[in-house]
Design goal:
Helices cover about 5% and strands about 50% of the residues. It is built from 3 helices and 28 strands. An 8-stranded mixed sheet has the order 2-3-4-5-1-28-27-26, with no helix packed on it. The longest helix has 8 residues, at about 110-120. The two termini are about 15 Å apart.
Length: about 350
């Protein structure tokens, strides 16, 4: 991996206290701003660029509680949503939670029967089961998520996929994915970690499960109706299902993020289990033109870049186009060298081949 240059992401004291800056899971550039999310809160952060042309730092952070914009399924509105993917297109910012279960960890202070008891505990959080579409308005010249906007006489409201259209519910009878619903994400269970939106298509990348080396992308076609504009519904595909499955040959890796690049999708790929690497960026050629379930291999997909990773740190989790054939990559558990004294985190800008 050759780093073209780096940028500083400077976070507020609140975000530092919530450890958002060391748990980065999603990023998307949107002109003068970066949308950022961590996996330990139920918020989306917005950072402003210090220069419109070649920014060296994004800061002046604003935090947006998802519960202030859309109804969340959890009883506690501030329970973590484990936001793992962000997408920006048209008038909307999209966010998706991991939809995963989690297994309790064994900490250094745990030993013997207590440690084994913790390792047997599996739990879920309702706020992780979200797919939301947030209207974005220009407020004082800055993109800002709002509850609703009016465009050409049409009102667009914040909307969520929920109720009978909850993704875990929809996958209960799926021949590939249903057996993995009771399994925690870090154990190769269901774990959504990327989203890309192109026109009316929403692509969700799964870190897990990976089946016999094949990674999954779910394609959705969400829409809203006039009688219930705050609820996302899903159009049915030819087989009567509300989703379409694609499987990708990523050499046994799962998907950590997705990013549209023209008609292609860039795929950030890394281990499904709790491993450090390897980590690659792939290109799924012509992804947005596919009109049937796909087996993506051979000439349909190519390796673009190999990324470095640390030992227990520097896990690439989010990726965004950065302009002029470059991508921005942010890291969960950043290495100490990426953390500055004033609360900033160093992210990498990489040049794509070709």
């Amino acid at each position: 991996m050759t780093v073209d240059h780096t940028v500083r992401l400077r976070f507020s004291e609140d975000s530092q206290a919530a450890s958002t800056h060391t748990n980065l899971s999603a990023v998307r550039r949107d002109g003068p701003v970066l949308w950022i999310a961590g996996d330990e809160t139920a918020t989306v952060e917005r950072l402003l660029a210090d220069s419109p042309d070649r920014p060296t730092e994004f800061g002046d952070e604003a935090r947006f509680r998802l519960a202030d914009l859309v109804d969340l399924p959890g009883a506690d509105a501030d329970e973590e949503a484990d936001v793992e993917g962000l997408a920006r297109t048209g008038h909307f910012l999209w966010a998706v939670g991991s939809h995963s279960l989690r297994r309790k960890q064994i900490r250094d202070r745990h030993d013997g029967p207590k440690a084994l008891k913790r390792l047997a505990r599996i739990e879920g959080q309702d706020n992780r089961q979200i797919l939301v579409r947030l209207p974005v308005a220009d407020v004082d010249g800055v993109p800002t998520p709002v509850r609703e906007i009016e465009v050409d006489g049409v009102v667009h409201r914040a909307a969520a996929l929920s109720g009978r259209d909850d993704l875990r519910r929809l996958l209960r009878d799926d021949e590939h994915l249903a057996p993995f619903l009771p399994i925690p994400g870090k154990d190769n269970g269901l774990d959504i970690e990327g989203i890309a939106v192109r026109d009316d298509r929403v692509y969700l990348g799964l870190r897990g499960p990976v089946l016999r080396g094949w990674a999954f992308v779910l394609e959705l076609r969400p829409y809203v109706t006039e009688d219930d504009p705050s609820r996302l519904r899903l159009r049915l595909f030819e087989d009567g299902r509300p989703y379409r499955k694609h499987v990708l040959d990523l050499n046994g890796l799962g998907i950590r993020d997705l990013c549209p690049d023209g008609d292609d999708l860039l795929v950030l790929a890394g281990p499904t289990m709790s491993l450090d690497g390897p980590v690659w960026i792939y290109r799924w050629h012509g992804a947005s033109r596919v009109e049937m379930p796909s087996v993506v291999r051979g000439k349909l997909i190519s390796r673009e870049l190999e990324l470095t990773y640390g030992e227990g740190d520097d896990h690439a989790e989010g990726m965004s186009l950065f302009g002029d054939g470059r991508v921005l990559v942010v890291y969960d558990s950043p290495a100490a060298a990426r953390l500055t004294a004033d609360g900033a985190v160093i992210a990498d800008v990489l040049r794509l081949p070709g």
